[in-house]
Amino acid sequence: MLIETQHQQLLDEAKKWKDHLKTYVDDINELKNNFYKWAAGKSDHDVLVQIERYHNQFHIQQINLHDLKHSLRLHMQECRLRPDADHVAKHQQLEEQYDFLVNDLDQLKADFIAFTS
């Protein structure tokens, strides 16, 4: 059983992650808008292949962001509904997913900026 401060720390950390992911949603949307402007009129085959790849990656990452935010909301709800339960293992799993996704998103953004420069 978690003491109340540990329980609140889990909730606070999950909320911080969820809020931070919102900034990535905005980033992906901005990158997509810039991408579509940049991609207009491109005709080189190799560039078109990369355009398709980035289009797919942006879409996949939007889904990943949505799914992780949803999982965090469910985790927070479960923590609130069952404060006496041990939520540490689920929290650690979500932290790993969060860290992995943030790393992927940062890498995608860096690769995309390098590609369009």
Task: Describe the fold and architecture.
This protein is an all-alpha fold. It has one domain (4-116). The protein has three helices and no strands. It has helices at residues 4-39, 45-81, 88-116. The longest helix is centred in the middle third of the chain and has 37 residues, at 45-81. The radius of gyration is 18 Å and the shape is elongated. The mean pLDDT is 91.
Q: Helix content range of the residues, please?
A: over 70%
For the termini, the CA-CA separation is 53 Å
**In what range is the share of β-strand residues?**
under 5%
Q: State the low-pLDDT regions, or none.
A: none
DSSP summary: helix tally? 3
> Kindly state the mean pLDDT as a whole number?
91
**Helix-and-strand structural type:** mainly alpha
How big is the Rg?
Answer: 18 Å
Helix-strand string: HHH
**How many distinct folded domains?**
1
Shape: elongated
Q: Tell me the number of strands.
A: 0
Tell me about the biggest sheet?
A: none
Write the layout of secondary structure elements.
Layout: H1 4-39, H2 45-81, H3 88-116
Relevant terms:
elongated; 3 helices; 117 residues; single chain; mainly alpha
In short:
With 117 residues, the protein is mainly alpha-helical.
